[in-house]
Design brief:
Distance between the termini: 46 Å
InterPro entries: TAT_signal, Uncharacterised_LppY/LpqO
Region (Disordered): 167-197
Radius of gyration: 19 Å
Largest sheet: 6 strands, antiparallel
Biased composition (Polar residues): 167-179
Number of domains: 1
Biased composition (Low complexity): 180-197
Order of helices and strands: HHHEEEEEEHEEEHHHEEEEEEHEEH
Strand content: 25-35%
Protein name: DUF1259 domain-containing protein
Structural class: alpha+beta
Number of helices: 9
Helix content: 10-25%
Length: 337
């Protein structure tokens, strides 16, 4: 009994030592991305009509776009919007500083997809992916990724014009959108105030000890967002980092005894099937496998998953998937290069 307690204490206090090599390593140094100026950030937020978050270490401005107008059920149970039904738009400079790029993930009902495609094309933006993130959700929801190039202010204006007639626009959300804080990435959303919060719903130290990262409370949910510090991924001349969508995440809703988990894992092609195997060994459902970006190098694949059960068991499944990253080489079929 004493030995078991000692092992548990070691897991809780020494979690960092069990991190994967990819989590502890840094990618080869690249030219530092030039920062956005204060004037550019003001212009972005004025165009979008909402305060966002500027992450200095990634030189990225990110604005959350939650769908607070929706009421979503998964497997017949109501789930909060921050669980995975919020979009985002991010802007950063290319590494040469000559221009900037925009990337966005938008949350749409099926009848909203093609009108937004037309609006994006009319405003000079492009589509990089359209797909599901969930099974069993009601209403049916799709996620569309957009990208574009230009000055930061131009990109914000193009995006604002693209979404102006849609529910995605902050001005068209219930009661408008208050400024948000914290890193807005993956499927982060800001839902209405709720009690209890994720802090009361879950044993956060226990989850953090399993995942070996610290999450963020967002209303009734608890979410981890984890980048790929072992990789340097470039697209359209810009470095892809966690704040602009290159991340793995896990969101918890419900209670510690009866939780939902949903999330995404960012992988190289050689990591796809090891991650799938790890998730299935832990009884998590694989619900989507797809790209988010076009022209990224190396090319990244994203896997979405879902599960129900005790929160700590679900967290173990997510951690098992993370354990497969960074150890299967860069090619297909686990080839080493």
């Amino acid at each position: 009994m004493n030995r078991r307690h000692a092992l548990q204490a070691t897991a809780l206090l020494g979690g960092a030592s069990a991190l994967g090599v990819w989590e502890l390593s840094a990618a080869p140094a690249k030219k530092k991305t030039p920062p956005l100026t204060p004037a550019e950030i003001v212009a972005i937020e004025a165009a979008l009509g909402k305060k966002g978050t500027y992450k200095e270490e990634e030189a990225t401005h990110n604005t959350a776009l939650p769908r607070n107008d929706l009421k979503v059920r998964v497997k017949g149970e109501a789930v909060p919007i921050p669980f995975g039904f919020g979009g985002w738009v991010a802007i950063k400079r290319t590494v040469d500083g000559k221009t900037a790029m925009l990337m966005s993930d938008t949350v749409l009902l099926q009848e909203e997809v093609n009108p937004l495609i037309s609006a994006a094309l009319a405003n000079g933006l492009e589509i990089s992916a359209i797909h599901n993130h969930f099974f069993y959700e009601e209403p049916r929801i799709f996620y569309m990724h957009l990208h574009g190039m230009g000055t930061p202010a131009e990109l914000a204006k193009k995006f604002a014009a693209t979404i102006s007639q849609s529910k995605i626009s902050p001005k068209n959300q219930p009661g408008g959108q208050a400024p948000t804080s914290g890193t807005q990435s993956g499927n982060t959303a800001t839902g209405a105030a709720a009690a209890p919060t994720g802090k009361e719903n879950f044993d956060l130290p226990a989850l953090d000890a399993i995942v070996k990262h610290t999450g963020t409370v967002n209303g009734p949910t608890y979410k981890y967002t984890i980048g790929r510090p072992d990789l340097t991924v470039m697209a359209m001349g810009a470095e892809m980092t966690a704040a602009i969508g290159l991340n793995s995440w896990a969101s918890f809703a419900g209670t510690k005894e009866k939780a939902h988990i949903a999330g995404d894992v960012a992988m190289l092609s050689s990591e796809v099937n090891p991650v799938i195997s790890a998730l299935r060994r832990h009884n998590l459902e694989v619900v989507a496998l797809h790209n988010h970006m076009l022209g990224d190098d190396p090319h990244m694949i994203f896997l979405h998953y879902y599960g129900q059960g005790p929160a700590t068991q679900l967290a173990q499944g997510f951690r098992a998937a993370l354990n497969e990253l960074g150890k299967h080489g860069k090619g297909l079929n686990h080839q080493k290069h």
